[in-house]
């Protein structure tokens, strides 16, 4: 069920921050895609689609006292204009993505060739919408803010049964979230409960906390990251839970730092760097003669002792085997080298070279 499209994917939630203006939307896409290219990351820019004429009941369309309705009305955009923004996302080298809030908007996603669909936390148990989304067979990311465990289990089972790639985002739907409200241990919970799915982090904390939250989220195993983005203009300020291009760049650099600190993937053994091996080799005990030896003597445990430093060409505790025949005379307290014993190690050219390149 895992899909490479979700791995290390950044989702830039443009939402309604275009404010109904194609030009403003394009400016956001341009500014943030530059950060994406500069940091060499994989990113989707996500729009929100609503069939506004039918999404809001006709009796409530003029209710300016209801913020959600007011913003939805003033940011209304037709399919043609959404198409211009989607085309701008493609030209910017980003993945196209949308949160459709109704069935007609899912159709618009199909018409515009959107690559990834998002199920918002508020729609996690809207089965009419979920059924329609599943019919597209497109990869889906779901946020889990405010959900019950049964809701998530049901949704995961639904998509698994249809073999549709699904990523699951830990999300706290508080705008903005305080750092003590982030509940990042839920990433562990989701990874353990749904091991066959990519787990992500959809975040709404203020920008002062984004770096520490990213470091922890990545270390816990989140592999897709979503955040609202916006730009400052004369007529609009950035909401506390949205990131400017500068803040987004900080967030991405925290990801790169976390990735470097965490190192290799959890399911494979890391490859140790040479400087680490050299350091540890210096701590390995070498084999020394406890008495004078003659050529042909048989080496036993009571004839040697182990001590540091390990010298170049000297056998260590790692290669020591009892019963080996000495090929040369060796004085007491002298190191016993790989060429001094009749051992399989002495005939392995690569291993012999390695032994002569380590130690003092």
Query: What's the overall geometry?
Result: elongated
Could you tell me the strand content as a percent range?
A: 15-25%
Count up the helices.
Answer: 12
Strand order of the largest sheet: 1-2-3-4-5-6-7-8
The Rg value, from CA coordinates, equals: 30 Å
Q: Show unreliable segments.
A: none
Distance between the termini: 52 Å
- The helix fraction, in percent, is 25-40%
Number of strands: 13
Structural class: alpha/beta
- Please, what is the average pLDDT? 92
SSE run: EHEHHHEHEHEHEHEHEEHHEEEEH
Main sheet attributes: strand count, strand direction, barrel closure: 8 strands, parallel, barrel
Write up what this structure looks like.
The chain is α/β, with parallel strands linked by helices and 360 residues long. It contains 12 helices and 13 strands. Strands 1-2-3-4-5-6-7-8 form an 8-stranded parallel beta barrel, surrounded by 5 helices. A two-stranded antiparallel ribbon has the order 10-11. The longest helix is centred in the N-terminal third of the chain and has 18 residues, at 22-39. The protein is elongated, with a radius of gyration of 30 Å. The two termini are 52 Å apart. 32% of the residues are buried. The mean pLDDT is 92.
Helices and strands in order, then pairings?
Elements (H helix, E strand, L loop, with lengths): L8 E7 L6 H18 L2 E8 L2 H4 L11 H8 L4 H13 L3 E6 L2 H10 L3 E4 L7 H8 L5 E4 L5 H13 L4 E6 L13 H9 L5 E5 L6 H11 L3 E6 L12 E2 L1 H18 L11 H8 L4 E4 L14 E4 L17 E2 L14 E2 L6 H9 L3
Parallel strand pairs: 1-2, 1-8, 2-3, 3-4, 4-5, 5-6, 6-7, 7-8, 8-9
Antiparallel strand pairs: 10-11, 12-13
Helix pairs in contact: 1-4, 1-10, 9-10
């Amino acid at each position: 069920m895992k899909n490479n499209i979700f791995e290390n994917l950044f989702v830039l939630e443009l939402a309604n921050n275009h404010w109904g203006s194609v030009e403003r939307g394009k400016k956001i896409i341009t500014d943030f895609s530059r950060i994406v290219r500069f940091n060499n990351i994989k990113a989707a820019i996500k729009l929100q689609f609503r069939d506004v004429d039918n999404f809001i009941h006709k009796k409530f369309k003029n209710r300016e006292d209801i913020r959600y309705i007011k913003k939805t009305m003033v940011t209304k955009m037709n399919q043609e204009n959404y198409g211009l923004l989607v085309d701008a996302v493609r030209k910017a080298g980003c993945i196209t993505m949308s949160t459709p809030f109704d069935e007609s908007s899912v159709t618009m996603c199909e018409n515009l060739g959107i690559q990834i669909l998002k199920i918002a936390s508020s729609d996690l148990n809207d089965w009419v919408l979920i059924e329609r989304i599943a019919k597209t067979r497109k990869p889906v990311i779901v946020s889990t803010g405010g959900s019950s465990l049964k809701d998530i289990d049901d949704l995961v089972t639904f998509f698994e049964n249809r073999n549709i790639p699904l990523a699951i985002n830990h999300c706290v739907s508080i705008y903005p979230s305080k750092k003590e409200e982030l509940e990042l241990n839920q990433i562990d919970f989701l990874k353990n409960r749904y091991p066959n799915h990519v787990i992500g982090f959809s975040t709404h904390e203020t920008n002062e906390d984004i770096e520490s939250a990213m470091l922890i989220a990545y270390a816990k195993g989140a592999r897709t990251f979503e955040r609202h983005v916006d730009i400052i203009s004369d007529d609009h300020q950035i909401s506390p839970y949205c990131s400017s291009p500068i803040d987004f760049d900080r967030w991405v650099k925290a990801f790169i730092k976390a990735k470097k600190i965490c190192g290799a993937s959890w399911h494979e053994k890391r490859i140790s760097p040479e400087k680490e091996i050299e350091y540890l080799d210096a701590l390995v005990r070498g084999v020394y003669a406890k008495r004078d030896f003659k050529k042909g003597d048989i080496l036993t445990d009571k004839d040697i002792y182990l001590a540091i430093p390990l010298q170049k060409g000297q056998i260590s505790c790692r290669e020591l085997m009892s019963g080996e025949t000495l090929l040369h005379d060796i004085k007491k307290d002298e190191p016993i080298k790989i060429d001094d014993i009749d051992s399989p190690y002495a005939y392995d050219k690569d291993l012999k070279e390695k032994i002569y390149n380590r130690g003092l």
